[in-house]
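Lab notes, practical 5.
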Amino acid sequence: MARRKEPTARQERLAAELRKLREAAGLKGREAAALLGVDSAQVSQIEFGTAGVSGDRVRRLAAHYACSDTELVEALVAMAGDRTSGWWDEYRGALPKSFLDLSELEHHASHRWDVDFLHVPGLLQTEEYARALFSYVNPDFPESELERRVEHRMQRRVVIERPDPVPYEAVIHEAALRIKVGDRAEARAQLTRILELSEAAHVTVRVIPFELDAFAGAGSAMVYAGGPVPQLDTVVRDGPHGTLFIDAEAQLNRYRTLFRRVEAVSLEPARSRDFINRLAEEL
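Output from the prediction step:
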């Protein structure tokens, strides 16, 4: 199998999980190599995602590592056999890798959660809102580059608009709803778009109002993508040095807890809809 120059986040995640299983079993890479009949270098490539691995080999390794979690093993086997060529591949080489990795992650997600305090989550954004964001952050981008990013963001919405949509829940702070990224008309259109999407049975939108007392959770912004089993969940966070994909179990537990905390203090969906509708009427 040809060596990959740039594995996707999904391929890297499969590799990392296989490495975790081996290390948990207390085995060395050379022992895994002996089982598969390959050299240690190939096992290293498999565990860094630069080389693929068959589902049969995943099962053999898992059995050798005495992994009894059959649901996890079968999820890893499915990942190993995945040859999905998604719509995001048309942007390969034209957009940062993190854009494509997020699209792939969303495509395979069992559920999606967003928490945001300053901006409307990407899956809920209108084209005008997204364009205003990208052009402000990157004022020197040529028009073609700007439009490519806007187009990609709009295509990401397919996960909540397709016939088999991903269950989606967003918790948005009032600040994000009130900040006028564009002009007044665009701000009203953005709020209307959120209201329209929230009518779908698989979409839940909750609002955290300014008036909430004792709320110190503004650092809890996240994109949370559920995996086929909880161990394969992923949190995505944007930082000053790029996009970070988080998959360590302790950190995943922390973000699950944070999400439930902000969810618990937010307005119920019906009250959130009324709240957003009032904001739209004020514009």
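Observations recorded by the TA: Strands lie at 112-116, 168-173, 203-208, 222-225, 234-239, 242-246. The chain has a mean pLDDT of 94.
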